[in-house]
């Protein structure tokens, strides 16, 4: 420090493969080809290079930082915060300035650029000619802009970083730096008032406010891990210096107003304040020490004169310090956020000061996120409708099974050979490779599960290893040095996923066992349906033609009519399900999302578009499926009526055939095969659900593993810094 004021040093960075990360992300997540944005990728690389190399206090460097910061704000609406590139930045303050902190985080990059913008303002203030009134005005303005940039960083950017900030950018450190910039800006106004020869009362008010701000900065600095003891002593000395200067000027005002006793009291208090400041003399630089000594010498001279005059001439009572009126304050500074930072989005357009925004033709990430949210809700709604319709069909099959239908009718109507319906079912199963398909599908599902489990166990092992290493280091170094939280405390959400995903596997295991048991129970009859007709004919016994009375024929006709009706209902239901799925497949919300996003961007250009802003559109769009929800109620009502008629007709049919055992065995064999066909369809559906579940789970466990790796890497970097 070769001055009586302080400036913020710049944070340093290195070149990163930002264009490559953007290209990779667009390729993997967007429908647009990255070559469309080659020029934008080159531009953002140039902007970053200019910004990180803006390390000299020159006014021309301000816009380099502002333009890149504005583009980063804009890009936050186009890309996720974790774009896929680690941004390394060396701390500017603290005790680890030689070790970079890296984050895969666009907001972290923005925070560092804004910190450097504040540093640029502070260094421009430092380099201003503070020996002239104009130079003091310029310096004060730069200090206020530095404070405003730090306030914006602390209040707006850092809370949205979604990761712990470096220690020299935590909230208390930024507060300390903001107050320091304001104190130094206020000091410029005080110095100008002295040079301009303003009234002592006015100068006293200005000095008192300078003292307050240095005190606030010092108190915040004490609570920061990054503010050095040298800076804290500097701010404490300046606090006492300006407290003394304020009392000195107040004493001069008292002399002018012939308040001789109060003059002596305030001069004595001024000396006391200066002496408090001089207690820091071992730790402060010569410039600050010279200022304190100069003030002390001047006050001492005035105090000797004032005490002598009062004792010999005026005989005014000298009040105690506690009786002195507290000095008024005249605040001349405010943390002023630069317009180029607060309203940066308004300056990004074709003819704007910052040029046009980049990647304008790229659909915003929030729109992609909103589209995926809508698709998820729509698919869940469609799945719930399909599940309810499938449940109705399953209930119908249970009723048919309990009534031994259509086996009892088939045995009566065709006592010899195989019924056409059964032959059609057998052919369908053969075309699908029947039993072999089921076992192969179950084996494929098992492989998917094993793969998911391997990834999950790998992630768990990464976390266990990291936790063990952390605990070993804590035992080795002690909690006084190893101050960081444990792994579970540092990443509670990540550790919660261990139990959450483990629960998914347990639930799936039970479902897999149920499906496997279902297949085992029906394997024989499904195998018959998969085989040649000859095996079916051998299994289904032929009966002698029964004697069919007029009553039996009439009741069989009624029952056949009722059975055909529920079969038609089931067929219509299948077609409705297919139509619903086709409707969902063709449901493309993207055009409406883009129109809504365009409207939001026009109305609020400075506000990032969030997926939550499309909730109204989602609700409106999902009303397209209200008719399908009503259809479920209609299907339920129609099936209940049809089943009631079927049960009544079957009761009459059974009564008419009471005592006739001629087709009993054939009837049971036919029903067994009919039941097996529906079980086959049910198992196919279960396996498809299981395959989809494990494919979806693969994404979850892969993301879990990636987060575990990133967390372990970050913790290892932290540990290296703690051990040095």
From TrEMBL:
InterPro entries: ALIX_V_dom (IPR025304), BRO1_dom (IPR004328), BRO1_sf (IPR038499). PANTHER family: PCD6 INTERACTING PROTEIN-RELATED (PTHR23030), PROGRAMMED CELL DEATH 6-INTERACTING PROTEIN (PTHR23030:SF39). It comes from Sporormia fimetaria CBS 119925. Belongs to the palA/RIM20 family. Transmembrane segments: none annotated. This is BRO1-domain-containing protein. CDD domains: BRO1_ScRim20-like (cd09241), V_AnPalA_UmRIM20_like (cd09236). Residues 4-396 form the BRO1 domain. One of its GO terms (cellular component) is endosome. SMART domains: BRO1. Pfam families: ALIX_LYPXL_bnd (PF13949), BRO1 (PF03097).
């Amino acid at each position: 420090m070769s001055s009586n004021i302080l400036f913020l040093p710049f944070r340093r960075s290195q070149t990163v493969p930002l264009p490559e990360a953007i290209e990779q992300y667009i390729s993997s997540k967007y429908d647009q080809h990255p070559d469309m944005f080659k020029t934008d990728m080159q531009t953002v690389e140039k902007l970053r290079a200019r910004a990180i190399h803006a390390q000299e206090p020159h006014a021309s460097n301000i816009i380099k930082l502002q333009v890149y910061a504005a583009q980063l704000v804009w890009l936050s609406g186009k890309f996720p915060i974790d774009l896929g590139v680690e941004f390394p930045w060396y701390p500017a303050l603290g005790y680890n300035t030689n070790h970079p902190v890296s984050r895969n985080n666009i907001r972290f990059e923005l925070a560092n650029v804004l910190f450097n913008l504040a540093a640029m303002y502070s260094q421009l203030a430092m380099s201003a000619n503070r020996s002239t009134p104009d130079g003091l005005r310029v310096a004060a303005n730069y200090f206020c802009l530095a404070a405003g940039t730090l306030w914006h960083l602390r209040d707006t950017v850092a809370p949205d970083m979604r990761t712990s900030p470096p220690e020299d950018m935590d909230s208390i450190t930024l507060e300390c730096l903001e107050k320091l910039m304001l104190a130094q800006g206020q000091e410029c106004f005080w110095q100008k008032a002295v040079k301009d020869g303003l009234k002592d009362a006015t100068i006293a008010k200005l000095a008192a406010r300078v003292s307050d701000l240095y005190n606030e900065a010092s108190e915040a600095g004490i609570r920061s891990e990054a503010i050095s003891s040298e800076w804290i002593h500097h701010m404490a000395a300046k606090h006492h210096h300006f407290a003394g200067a304020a009392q000195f000027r107040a004493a001069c005002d008292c002399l002018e107003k012939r308040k001789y006793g109060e003059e002596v009291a305030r001069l004595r208090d001024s000396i006391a304040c200066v002496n408090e400041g001089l207690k820091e003399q071992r730790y402060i630089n010569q410039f600050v020490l010279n200022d304190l000594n100069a003030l002390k010498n001047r006050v001492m001279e005035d105090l000797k004169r004032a005490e002598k005059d009062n004792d010999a001439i005026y005989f005014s009572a000298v009040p105690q310090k506690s009786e002195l009126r507290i000095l008024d304050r005249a605040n001349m500074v405010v943390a002023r956020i630069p317009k180029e930072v607060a309203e940066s989005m308004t300056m990004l357009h074709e003819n704007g000061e910052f040029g046009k925004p980049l990647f304008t033709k790229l659909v915003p990430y929030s729109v992609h996120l909103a589209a995926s949210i809508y698709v998820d809700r729509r698919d869940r709604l469609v799945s719930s409708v399909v599940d309810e319709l499938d449940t109705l069909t399953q209930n119908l099959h249970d009723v048919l099974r309990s009534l031994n239908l259509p086996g009892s009718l088939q045995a009566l109507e065709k006592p010899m050979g195989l019924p056409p319906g059964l032959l059609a079912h057998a052919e369908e199963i053969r075309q699908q490779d029947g039993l072999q398909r089921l076992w192969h599908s179950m084996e494929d599902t098992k492989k998917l599960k094993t793969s998911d489990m391997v990834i999950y166990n790998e992630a768990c092992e990464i976390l266990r290893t990291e936790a063990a290493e952390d605990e070993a280091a804590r035992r080795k170094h002690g909690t006084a040095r190893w101050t960081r939280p444990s792994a579970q405390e540092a990443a509670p959400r990540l550790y919660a996923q261990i139990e959450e995903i483990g629960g998914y596997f347990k639930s799936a295991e039970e479902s897999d066992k149920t499906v496997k048991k279902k297949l085992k129970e029906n394997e024989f009859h499904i195998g018959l349906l998969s085989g040649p007709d000859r095996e079916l004919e051998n299994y289904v016994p032929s009966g002698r033609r029964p004697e069919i009375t007029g009553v039996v024929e009439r009741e069989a006709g009624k029952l056949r009519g009722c059975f055909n009706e529920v079969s038609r209902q089931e067929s219509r239901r299948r077609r409705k399900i297919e139509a619903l799925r086709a409707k969902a497949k063709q449901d493309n919300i993207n055009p409406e999302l883009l129109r809504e996003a365009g409207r939001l961007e026009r109305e609020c250009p400075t506000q990032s578009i969030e997926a939550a802003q499309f909730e109204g559109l989602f609700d409106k769009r999902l009303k397209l499926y209200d008719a399908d929800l009503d259809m479920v109620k209609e299907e339920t009502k129609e099936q209940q009526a049809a089943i009631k008629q079927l049960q009544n007709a079957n009761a009459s049919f059974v009564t008419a055939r009471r005592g006739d055992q001629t087709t009993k065995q054939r009837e049971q064999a036919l029903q067994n095969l009919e039941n097996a066909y529906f079980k086959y369809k049910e198992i196919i559906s279960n396996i498809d659900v299981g395959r989809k579940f494990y494919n979806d789970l693969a994404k979850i466990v892969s993301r879990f593993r990636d987060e575990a790796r990133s967390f372990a890497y970050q913790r290892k970097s932290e540990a290296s810094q703690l051990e040095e």
